[in-house]
């Protein structure tokens, strides 16, 4: 089997039970150390519920990442531009960022948009974002290179989270991030595999030595990136950033006008 990151030989690594019933083979790249499953034939079943019962950290994750996104945008990007949350789930981050004055839209092919309806990628065209966020998405990618190409068609800059293999001998027993119970984590990255992806697309790669990563066409201060993506520091940092006008009122008017327009059309 070939590695889906660097195309080197990927050798059988381990066998584990996925969704409690499928014996699934995992392969590890001999070059970049990327871990991938065999062809994931079980994904339709895995995504019958896009947000799994084990994703109990959904709200906390959005609370933690909102100030990080605000800080990264304010420091290195144009805060007046368009932004997209890729694989944005229920749309919670999009709504939270719009409430902080950032023009965010959502994309997700699996999940219903509950919190950011009318602010989906299909609601604006053409779409070229200043920054694309992809939180807890990369590990779900069946074909990472192809999917990242899609992301880069939307933005030259990708701020994402994924956990990096903590050592060279990780197993489902020693590392919770496999999560075979849900069957959705089909790609598990090493530092080398992420660096390979950045190099492949001629992007600079920054990592906060935890779970936040940035692929970008900009050269930035790596120490400052680690600092302002730290939960302890970022809230203090954001105190020195000017508050932006929330888009809540404008969004309310836009949605109300759409609703009224539909009422008029139906009455005719």
TrEMBL record:
Q: Name one GO biological process term.
A: methylation
Q: Does the keyword GTP-binding apply?
A: no
Recorded GO terms, molecular function?
Answer: methyltransferase activity
Classification via InterPro entries = SAM-dependent_MTases_sf (IPR029063)
What keywords appear on the UniProt entry? Methyltransferase, Transferase
Record bears the keyword Heme: no
| Taxonomic superkingdom | Bacteria
Which SUPFAM superfamilies would you find in this protein's record? S-adenosyl-L-methionine-dependent methyltransferases
Name of the protein in its database record? Methyltransferase family protein
Q: Which Pfam families match?
A: Methyltransf_23 (PF13489)
